[in-house]
Amino acid sequence: MQSSPGGGVVRKRSPVSRWTLLVCSFILAAALGQMNFTGDQVLRILAKNEKQLSLLRDLEGLKPQKVDFWRGPARPSLPVDMRVPFSELKDIKAYLESHGLAYNIMIKDIQVLLDEEREAMAKSRRLERSTSSFSYSSYHTLEETLGFAPSLLNCPSEKLLSFQIYTWIDNFVTEHSDIVSKLQIGHSFENRSILVLKFSTGGSRRPAIWIDSGIHSREWITHATGIWIARKIVSEYGKDRIVTDVLNAMDVFLEIVSNPDGFAYTHSMNRLWRKNKSSRPGTFCIGVDLNRNWKSGFGGNGSNNNPCSETYHGPSPQSEPEVAAVVDFIMSHGNVKALISIHSYSQMLMYPYGHSLEPVSNQEELYHLAKDAVQALYEVHGIEYIYGSISTTLYVASGITVDWAYDSGIKYSFSFELRDTGRYGFLLPATQIIPTAQETWMAIRTIMEHTLHHPY
Ligand SMILES: [Zn+2]
């Protein structure tokens, strides 16, 4: 066993050629029946007014399960991005043109980006094997998703084992056991462990900060950012004054993979999957939008009661085990003071409410804190974020995490939409992981500092 500088204890492995890995990764994708998006495009529409926005909303009903909104219709000042399958392009473009809706093509062929992404992953795995260290600038799978397929196809199965997120979590906790521990707070619909990292320097039931990422499984940049931030917290303790002060008084909980089933599915079958993987009698559609399944404003505007919709809220509040686990954990902890929920994309930092236009009681304080956090983020790489309440900045959305947190007494509740603004959308290249994590960290650190200095 050898210890890697970045945080994993991994076994040294014999070299396997680049081509073997690359070819295997493509063969396995095909063998598993991974969805192919050749010719699918992402169109950006700039609606001029409410009427044009509602024409776009109508598309979900007119073309059920055909149009996939990456940025849904919100307000005329915000663009709408939608993925259109190759087979529907002609129809949809004709619809847009007939209603005078101007559009441009943001992504010309989604499969090209997916192939590049897969190739980058295969390349990085090869490097990880040869250096025996986890790469924080790459995307990773959750677990061994390929089952028996590698041995069947004579591909090197061990190439995938050491550099998966759940293995990384175990190695990371082992290496930093003085400050980090792993909690299992429940099981997903498909019975995967729901894991939380706890950063603590002692005490019991200290005031706490909760951070989650990956509730929407296709938002890969959020998991990668969560992993980077875990290491950052550990490496800054004792060095950075704010991190040290925070961890001497508070605990930090970090749920990196909040939707493990969905995330595994984005690797094995459908890279663009958003919901969880729950199924119920009476419908053939799979999955609930885990960011519509919370109690606050459940079932209201900006959520959908059609199980086939991407924003299906589920049969009842907290019906989904992935949501119920977090609710149970935070409620039984009883001392969480800040909650940060990380999504992508759009470059926004927002606070409650999502389900209502009504300002929350400390809205002034949240506004100024968001402003400071966004400024700290900007100073890292010059990336601009917009900020404000969810309902006035983005759109009305009901049953969301941060509204529930706020209504449960967590007055510092924030939600991020990370990079970018649509050039790559959910398919943000891995080369942007580190800069995204670095700037996001500075915003999170700002929120942590404020929470520490404003006890309640
Ligand atoms: Zn999201």
From TrEMBL:
GO terms for biological process: proteolysis. Its main location: secreted. Signal peptide: none annotated. It is an enzyme of class 3 (hydrolase). It catalyses: leukotriene C4 + H2O = leukotriene F4 + glycine; Release of a C-terminal amino acid, but little or no action with -Asp, -Glu, -Arg, -Lys or -Pro. Transmembrane segments: none annotated. Pfam families: Peptidase_M14, Propep_M14. Residues 157-451 form the Peptidase M14 domain. Keywords: Carboxypeptidase, Disulfide bond, Hydrolase, Metal-binding, Metalloprotease, Protease, Secreted, Signal, Zinc. Its EC number is 3.4.17.1. Gene3D superfamilies: Metallocarboxypeptidase-like, Zn peptidases. It is found in: Secreted. Its cofactor is Zn(2+). CDD domains: M14_CPA. One of its GO terms (molecular function) is zinc ion binding. The keyword Signal applies. The active site is at E417 (proton donor/acceptor). GO terms for cellular component: extracellular space. Monomer. May form a complex with proelastase 2. Carboxypeptidase that catalyzes the release of a C-terminal amino acid, but has little or no action with -Asp, -Glu, -Arg, -Lys or -Pro. Catalyzes the conversion of leukotriene C4 to leukotriene F4 via the hydrolysis of an amide bond. Belongs to the peptidase M14 family. This is Carboxypeptidase A1. The lineage of its organism: Eukaryota, Metazoa, Chordata, Craniata, Vertebrata. The gene is CPA5.
